[in-house]
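Try this one yourself first.
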């Protein structure tokens, strides 16, 4: 993430990766304040064994795009909402990448989906992770059905006799 203040959003990506048993690292790397660290982090990510990068940034939000320019790994950008412009500035900064430097972009503050997307990318080459993702999807389906049953029950209780 570009700043430690982004952790309020980005912790959700870390939680998802932990839930799926995917080892990961958490690092503050600023595209503007630590450019040398950014370059070495991006260039060395693949050789360190990373399979994908989830990069959250607010405001000018250059971190995901700069990382994508430095590595062949998939980069997933998370626009972090700040007080001004409701995160739209971050979203547009991340999603408007020039041809040849792709960044997958999730919704504003969508770190949970970014973690899930990273897990799916990794699961494409790791059957154990893919199985966990499929189990997660079945659990979501079950939760929706349980909510549907509860809603219908509450509606019948509220119906006039």
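Now uncover the answer:
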């Amino acid at each position: 993430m570009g700043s430690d203040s982004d952790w309020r959003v980005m912790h959700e990506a870390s939680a998802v990766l932990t839930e799926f048993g995917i080892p990961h690292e958490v690092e503050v790397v600023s595209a503007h304040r630590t450019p040398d660290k950014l370059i070495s982090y991006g260039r060395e990510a693949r050789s360190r064994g990373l399979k994908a990068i989830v990069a959250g940034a607010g405001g000018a939000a250059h971190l995901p795009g700069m990382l994508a320019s430095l590595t062949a790994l998939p980069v997933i950008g998370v626009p972090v909402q700040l007080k001004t412009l409701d995160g739209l500035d971050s979203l547009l900064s991340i999603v408007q990448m020039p041809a040849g430097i792709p960044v997958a972009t999730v919704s504003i503050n969508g770190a949970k989906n970014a973690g899930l997307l990273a897990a799916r990318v990794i699961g494409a080459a790791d059957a154990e992770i893919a199985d966990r993702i499929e189990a997660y999807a079945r659990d979501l389906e079950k939760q929706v059905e349980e909510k549907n049953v509860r809603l219908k029950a509450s509606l019948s209780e509220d119906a006039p006799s």
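Discussion: The CA atoms of residues 35 and 82 lie 22 Å apart. The chain has six helices and three strands.
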